[in-house]
Amino acid sequence: MNAGDTCCTPVPATATTAAAATRLPLAGLLALACAGFVTILTEALPAGLLPQMAAGLGVRPALVGQLVTVYALGSLLAAIPLVVATRSWRRRRLLLAAIAGFLVANTVTALSAHYPLTLLARFVAGISAGLLWALLAGYASRLVAPALQGRAIAVAMVGTPLALSLGIPAGTLLGQHLGWRWTFGAMSLLSLGLLAWARIVLPDFPGTRGRDALRLREVFGLPGIAQVLTVMLLYVLAHNALYTYIVPVLALAGPDMAVERYLLLFGVMSLAGIWIVGTLIDRGIRRLLLASIAGFLLATAIMALSPRQPTVLAVATGLWGLAFGGVATLFQTALARRAGAAADLAQSMLVTGWNLAIAGGGLLGGMLLDHLGAHALVLAVLPLLLVSGALAAPRRGWA
Predict the structure, then answer these.
(1) Domain 216-392 - what CATH class?
(2) pLDDT tens-digit profile of 73-90?
(3) Is the model's pLDDT at 22 over the cut of 80?
């Protein structure tokens, strides 16, 4: 297999799978969605349980915040090397290993009384997350015929907005009433159940061996891959610069803003966004992506023009959530279709770039907030989205 053969070839399924897949295999896709749910919830829970974890571990709240940072660092460092090293592994075995990583990490977190050990457990969880995100889109694609790949990936990704809108508030509430250790213990039990579920409902697929396996540089050079990754980097950088500091942005409208209501609105509208993308994705990725960028751009412009009106900010937040909800599915599907049999490696690049954008968004937003204020931060997002839209406009890359 050479680069020319791969670039326009959909992710291959076995002949029997492709022939039989006249409808979505919901049991398998929902198992993948649950894996994404566990990933996001494991990542974000320390932020919602900051005071409790600080008291329990005997450290400052700022150090508990680093539990999120080291998680992202694990994903950033591990995604590409792990995917390259395990390309010959059978896919179900590898997916189960990633889920088992969450089981171990969350169990250690629940039981640990020592901050360094907890930090190490979070790093292991981040490594598992980097591997799992690299596998999800390719696995979902291989469960169905090519015509259903976009919708399959959308279902597999529904765990992300569910975790953001429902899982994190529920986990935070559980931690406040029963203790943060019980919350991470519950995550361990969920991971254990998911291991059994995935083992039962997911079919196995072979890895890629020998000369069939493209190298990293060859995958990056496939038509459209660099375009998709660049647009993703700018979009996610803009999103995280704004989302990370949404509290001071909303505070422009007054000190008593109910931030949790705006975040819930964002999460609910994200669910609507992923539903829309899942319904329409197989009719054209590029138009949906341009609509997402335009919606996010409009929401940001509304925030910039009326930063002191709570009702207007609610409209902007809802529009932003609607625009953002399905965007990960769009990027993952575009990469899966362009990379073909090298989809997992292409997805590992997306995971790495996504985590770079998270870190970069936090850094950029923090600098703007410290030096120019929250309103300037909102304004700074606009050019990032404009450039992202301009790079997304050419048809090349959006299969």
Answers:
(1) mainly alpha
(2) 888 888 888 888 887 888
(3) no
In angstroms, rounded to a whole number, what is the distance separating the alpha carbons of residues 272 and 292?
13
What's the pLDDT tens digit per position in 244-270? 777 788 888 777 767 777 878 888 898
Instruction: Return all residues near 193 (Cβ < 8 A) that are at least 6 apart.
Output: none
Report the residue count for the chain: 399
Domain span(s) for CATH 1.20.1250.20 in the chain: 3-9+25-212, 216-392
Question: Is-above-0.70 flag for pTM?
Answer: yes
Which CATH number describes the domain made up of 3-9+25-212? 1.20.1250.20
Percent of the chain with pLDDT over 90: 31
Exposure string of 24-56, with b = 16+ CB inside 10 Å and e = fewer, is bbeebbbbbbbbbbbbbbbbbbbebbbebbbeb
